[in-house]
Amino acid sequence: MTKVYICGDSFAVTDPEYGPCWVDMLPNLNNLAQVCASNFLIYEQVERAIISQASFILVLFTSSLRSELKYNGN
């Protein structure tokens, strides 16, 4: 069975307030994308897809200026 994974930031996340997104048109995919994802988080999504033996991985990188920060020690 073909396993397709999407890794990225908010441009790959469904937003019910905005309406249908391009990812809503793709059947049978595993969407690991997250709102506000940095490139490091996207890298971790790709690693997870590889571990899950993805057949295809679609990667949407974000701005190189986006960074990680701690909030309440996390």
Order of strands in the sheet with most strands? 2-1-3
Number of helices: 1
Q: Give the uncertain stretches in residue-range form.
A: none
Main beta sheet: 3 strands, parallel
Reading the helices and strands in chain order gives: EEHE
| Form type | globular
Describe the structure.
This protein is an alpha/beta fold. The chain contains one helix and three strands. It has one helix at 39-51; strands spanning 4-7, 29-31, 56-59. The chain has a three-stranded parallel sheet, with helices on one face. 16% of the residues are buried.
Quickly describe the structure.
18% of the residues lie in helices and 15% in strands. With 74 residues, the chain is an alpha/beta fold.
Helices and strands in order:
Layout: E1 4-7, E2 29-31, H1 39-51, E3 56-59
Parallel strand pairs: 1-2, 1-3
Key structural traits:
alpha/beta, 74 residues, globular, 3-stranded parallel β-sheet
